[in-house]
Amino acid sequence: MVGTPRKRRLAVIGAGMAIPPHARSLRELADRVEVAAVFSRERDKLDKVAAQFGFPVTDALAPLLADPTIEAVMVLTPPSTHLEVVERAAAAGKHVLLEKPVEVTLERARRLVETAERAGITLGVVLQHRFRPNALKLEALIRSGALGAIAAASAAIRWWRPQSYYDEPGRGTKARDGGGVLLTQAIHSLDTFQNLAGSIREVTGFAATSALHRMETEDIVCAGVRFANGALGTIDATTASHPGFPERLELVGTRATAVLNGGELELYWQDGRTERFEGERLMGGGADPMAFSHAHHRAVLTDFLDALDQARAPKVSGREALGVHRLIDALLRSSEIRAPVALEA
User: Fold this and answer.
1) Spatial separation of the C-alpha atoms in residues 124 and 195, rounded to whole Å
2) β-strands 232-238, 220-227: how paired?
3) What pTM was computed for the model?
4) Residue 123 to residue 96: CA distance in whole angstroms
5) pLDDT tens digits along 210-262
6) 241 with 231: CB under 8 angstroms?
7) For a surface tag, which of 142, 245, 323, 336 has the fewest beta carbons within 10 Å of its beta carbon?
8) Three-state helix/strand/coil letters over 231-259
9) What fold does the segment set 8-128+297-316 form as a domain?
10) Where are the beta strands (DSSP E) in the chain?
């Protein structure tokens, strides 16, 4: 029966740095989901997962994909592997909850989403900032028209990563990660930014590697943007701002200005009222990239399970997630050709 919650078996593919918030979420939702096994080819990572979280582990992927009792997989492997893994999962009829980014290039991301759509599987993407309580509160206010029309908007993501972070083999490379600050860190805030302010239609950007890091890809980006409704805005993203600060999204509406500062929300109404809603301030913006609550990952997983129960798309589906990939691709392209770039409608 559509809409009836039931417990589902799920396998986790990948046991690297990204697994802790997902593992904690899976344990807290044990009444709704059973972890059949965690897969990795690296035994030391499997041993760590088994010891820390108590999940079954395996270094054999094929039996998991062949198991008819496993309905879904959570994919936590490096971005450059996502297309191949989702192709195998889709061929096996497994639904997929995919860690961001969708893939390392826009072309590969599109191919991945189209693969899932052709197979008829549900594809959700882990862009958990949309699930922060105050982001949801602001989204509801905007959708209701309370803030009026969006006249201007800006996003500032000034984070910090030490050189030791980029010294890990493959980190910040095009081959493994697909990019730098935009695709690996700022993607969360940029996804939320577009979801709240509206689609961006044109960008003029600059991207570079600052003097603070030795890496292949960009660690600093700035851009001017034009939204679909004609509003203007700015984007400022970096991992070179020590010691790391809460990301700030500012939306100027015709009735009020809203500021999301980390997880906090401030509303400045034109009638003189000011409202403040507390939330977490700094979440993963400093030297420790995992220094954040797993509550929003749990919300992503809950929404994914609800989507399966209700036969609907997740809040951030694969198709929906392509929006932020198009923006990132355009930002980097604009910097490369030193000219404005129009985004497809």
Assistant:
1) 16
2) antiparallel
3) 0.94
4) 5
5) 999 999 999 999 999 999 999 999 999 999 999 999 999 999 999 999 999 99
6) no
7) 336
8) CEEEEEEECECCCCCCCEEEEEECCEEEE
9) Rossmann fold (3.40.50)
10) 8-13, 33-39, 57-58, 70-75, 95-99, 123-126, 150-158, 200-208, 220-227, 232-238, 248-253, 256-261, 264-269, 274-277, 341-342
